[in-house]
């Protein structure tokens, strides 16, 4: 049987969801026989190729992240939002209470450690969007695994459901909202 091809991306988040994925421990060995990872922060492969499943961690806060998410969506049959940032915007979306000009000024000019006081622009720093968005505000998302980060068991359950050809719907005892 052919392996299920999977690509993952890490956008505006902390990498906790990918770390939680690694917490499935020895189940990774079982998954390795059924899954082939292409682009992923875990593999450090940068190019997109067509895959069966795309997994997005993190919200969408700048133009580069928006393009990366659109490219993943264009190259996957099923897209999973992994973690609260991808599902809801979460911590990254806290900056949405401020204008992007205020955020950049505070981050690059007003911080206590600022030396030069210049706001970098593209290409050094991708242009910020007005607000941080969850993945489904940018592209169609097929399934959601919330949590900050999601429990390893919820991730494993969701991946097994996808491998069985089903869109995962987490049972209530696996739902975690922090």
Helix content: 25-40%
Computed Rg: 17 Å
Q: What's the CATH superfamily, by name?
A: NADH:ubiquinone oxidoreductase-like, 20kDa subunit
Q: How many independent structural domains?
A: 1
Task: Describe this entry's structure for a reader.
By secondary structure, this protein is α/β, with parallel strands linked by helices. It is 30% helix and 20% strand. The protein has helices at 16-22, 27-32, 63-74, 84-88, 100-110, 152-163, and strands spanning 4-10, 35-37, 51-57, 60-62, 76-82, 128-133, 143-145. The strands form two sheets. It has a five-stranded parallel β-sheet with strand order 2-1-3-5-7, with helices on both faces.
Question: Which keywords apply here?
Answer:
single chain, about 20% strand, 7 strands, about 180 residues, Rossmann fold, alpha/beta, two-stranded antiparallel ribbon, five-stranded parallel beta sheet
Task: Map the helices and strands.
Elements: E1 4-10, H1 16-22, H2 27-32, E2 35-37, E3 51-57, E4 60-62, H3 63-74, E5 76-82, H4 84-88, H5 100-110, E6 128-133, E7 143-145, H6 152-163
Parallel strand pairs: 1-2, 1-3, 3-5, 5-7
Antiparallel strand pairs: 4-6
């Amino acid at each position: 049987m052919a392996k299920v091809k999977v690509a993952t991306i890490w956008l505006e988040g902390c990498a906790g969801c990918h770390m939680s994925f690694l917490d499935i421990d020895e189940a990774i060995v079982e998954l390795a026989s059924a899954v082939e990872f292409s682009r992923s922060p875990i593999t450090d492969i940068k190019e997109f190729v067509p895959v069966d499943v795309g997994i997005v961690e993190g919200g969408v806060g700048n133009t580069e992240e928006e393009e990366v998410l659109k490219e993943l969506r264009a190259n996957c049959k099923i897209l999973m939002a992994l973690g609260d940032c991808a599902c809801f915007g979460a911590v990254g979306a806290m900056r949405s209470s401020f204008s992007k000009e205020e955020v950049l000024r505070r981050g690059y000019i007003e911080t206590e450690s600022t030396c030069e006081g210049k706001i970098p622009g593209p290409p050094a720093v991708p242009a910020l969007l007005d607000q941080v968005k969850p993945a489904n505000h940018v592209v169609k998302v097929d399934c959601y695994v919330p949590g900050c980060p999601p429990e390893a068991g919820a991730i494993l359950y969701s991946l097994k459901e996808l491998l069985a050809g089903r869109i995962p719907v987490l049972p209530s005892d696996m739902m975690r909202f922090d």
